[in-house]
Amino acid sequence: MVLISASAASGSGPNWSILISVAGGVVTTLIGVFVGSLLTRKTQQRQWLLDYQAQASSTFLREYQKVSRARRKSFESNSLPDLDWRPWNEAVTILSLVADQKVVLVTQRIDNILWDVCIKLRDGDTAGLSWLALRSDIESAVRDFINLSRIQFGHGGMSVEYFHGRPGIEDGIWPGWRSGE
Predict the structure, then answer these.
(1) pLDDT for 92-102, tens place per residue?
(2) Taking the model in full, what pTM does it have?
(3) C-alpha span between 56 and 107 (Å, rounded)
(4) Angle at 66 between CA 168 and CA 58, to 5 degrees
(5) 3-class secondary structure, 109
(6) Percentage of the chain with pLDDT > 90?
(7) Largest Cα–Cα distance in the chain?
(8) Long-range interactions of 64-68: CB distance < 8 A, separation 24+
(9) Residue 126 in contact with residue 80, Cβ under 8 Å?
């Protein structure tokens, strides 16, 4: 305003080069703020999603351990597991909402294996089933879940071979043990 008044008083009109320079600076600053806010928003959304996926994955694995223990006891007694399935179903559903498609598919595979075992237990159809074979199938799927989750969280080059602290199924320690065949 002072520039216009001073130049208008001299009769030469506004100093356009200064006005254009100032206006360009203001526009550039506003564009920078706008682009920066978009990038920050996108980064924050991605971070929130990763945090939520990690939480959902850990909840899923925690519920899997509960279901797995109950399934083992029910297999030994040839009865249905005494289990509240709601937390398991919630964990599967939440993962279906927030996880990548490959993680969702392996989650559904784990769920299907567990339900197949429960149906066989319910129907008394366990004569030809081997605990080690059942455990091998489900643990292979859980290992796939863990490795796909690690890729989702940015650890793509580092897969895990096993996820528990006991010897593998093929280890000679199991035959004859209560935990084995």
Answers:
(1) 999 999 988 99
(2) 0.66
(3) 12
(4) 85
(5) helix
(6) 20
(7) 107
(8) 64/88, 64/91, 64/110, 64/142, 67/114, 68/138
(9) no
